[in-house]
Amino acid sequence: MDKGEAFYLQKQYGKAVECYRKALDAKLNDNNRALCWYMVGRSYTALDRYDDAKISFMNIVNLYSNTDWLPEAYVGLGDVEFKRRKYSEALKQYRKSQTESFMKRSGSRVLLKIAKTQKNLGNTKEAQECEKKILKDYPRSLEARLLMKGGSSSSTKVVKAESTGSSKSTVSTKSSTTSQSSSKTTASAPKTKFAVQVSYTPKQDLANNYAAQLKKKGYKAYVRKGSKGYSVLVGDYATKSEAQSVCAKLRKSEKNDSYVISL
């Protein structure tokens, strides 16, 4: 499993599949077996082998529905159908993932996928409702920050609605905001910095290897030890906007769920 994770992080998806399939021959508990099938499915998706990916995710649905990986399997199935441009089916799968516990930890990610799917189906109103829910229920998530930067039609409407009103009110609000922003900058700028968390693993050697790969690509990557594992972080940014920009780039190039953290 460790080798499979290393190969996946290196984007050697074919080798990752081989390692995870070998791990499935060993005696594993249901949660680890589900994890292996999930990573096999993700690897096949990255290789555009959608039928194989679908079979892998369905193994979790059919055999390991009692594990925490069931919602992730539905997201994986949704991604497969989305890539196939079967948006109605993708929407069904994404919605199946929306259990209470999964939404607490990954709700913003799923809702953004649903919003994108609704847009491709031409359901603009439904897409905007999803985006507004992200802004309301997950205001600190990466997805919310991306929407606030103008990544959707609904976020633009929210900004316009907030700026509507009398000129006196606008000036007063602007003055108050400027004053607050100024005091925050003076008080916290020297202390608060931001980084992008790219990966988290219980294995220090895997974290070190991945950080080294990112350094070769020009990123200021390093490893930070946590209570249960090791985080691979990128950067030491003075502002959230800088970190968010790098985070978006890493999500696209590394095909992962990087997110911004405060240092």
Could you explain the architecture of this structure?
The protein starts with a helix and ends with a strand. The chain has a four-stranded antiparallel β-sheet. The chain contains 13 helices and four strands. By secondary structure, the chain is of the alpha+beta class. The chain has two domains: 159 residues, Alpha Horseshoe (Serine Threonine Protein Phosphatase 5, Tetratricopeptide repeat); 69 residues, 2-Layer Sandwich (Alpha-Beta Plaits). About 15% of the residues have low confidence.
| Helix amount | 55-70%
Shape: globular
The first-to-last residue Cα distance is 30 Å
Instruction: Report Rg.
Output: 21 Å
CATH class of the largest domain: Mainly Alpha
Concise summary:
Helix content is 67%, strand content 10%. It has 263 residues and is an alpha+beta fold.
